[in-house]
Amino acid sequence: MNARTVFIAEDEPLARDVLRDFIYAHAGLRLVGEAADGASALAQIDRIRPDIVFMDIQMPEMTGLDVLRRLTVVPDIVFTTAYDQYAVTAFELNAVDYLLKPFTRARFDAAVARLLETPGSSVPAPDVIGGALTLAVDRVPSRIERILVRDRGRIFPLSVNEIAYLKADAKYTAIAARGHTFLVRIGISELEAQLDPGRFIRIHRSALVNLDFVDSMRADDQSQLEITMRDGAVLTASREASKVLREMAI
Predict the structure, then answer these.
(1) What CATH number belongs to 4-138?
(2) pLDDT tier at 212 (50, 70, 90 boundaries)?
(3) What gap in Å lies between CA 56 and CA 138, rounded to an integer?
(4) What is 146-248's CATH topology?
(5) Which of 64, 132, 152, 214 would bridge 57 by S-S if both were Cys, CB 3.0 to 4.6 A apart?
(6) Cα dihedral 111→117→123→128 (10° resolution)
(7) pTM for this one?
(8) What whole-number distance in Å separates Cα of residue 6 and Cα of residue 180?
């Protein structure tokens, strides 16, 4: 049996890394392309015509739902997202499966098993697609209140109110909370989009701080703010973020 061709449409580098590793490890799959935004995904999928697409729902320029609406040929779709509000809509759009981040290798393999048993997805009629897409847009969550994290074999909900700061860390995002660091397989940009911007500030490319947990700030020799957190951690803000923080001061 020939391996089925696979395309990844995912804007978060960390999430792409996870999917890529899982695909490479599966003998029944062959990766043929990747895209980091919706517009590129649409163009490449129509050109390459892969058998399967693992596609995030929230992407720059065009959502995964918009991509599906505009494709001329629809492959088997597995939606990937951090938010379970999309689950019903995903199946209304005839998605073969739906992976809720952070998903395990076992959950990925279960989705692939279903894909390999599926001869090909039927394309919904345009009016059905349009109606479901409109419904999905209406369901986009504005904020998250908690994140499921793992720690020493346990999985438990962590309230965003407990998060002091977040840092991008290789294939993970490191979340500092409760005096510990928890690693999650969700990109920091994806998390930032669902956090209160009045409290969580992007201080540089790979870090967010919760202002409620900031002890003090002071400028260094380069006029960049050094942010001391309540737990003693010191984080340096970029020039642009330092300017924003100064403007916030009364």
Answers:
(1) 3.40.50.2300
(2) very high
(3) 17
(4) OB fold (Dihydrolipoamide Acetyltransferase, E2P) (2.40.50)
(5) 64
(6) -60
(7) 0.51
(8) 38
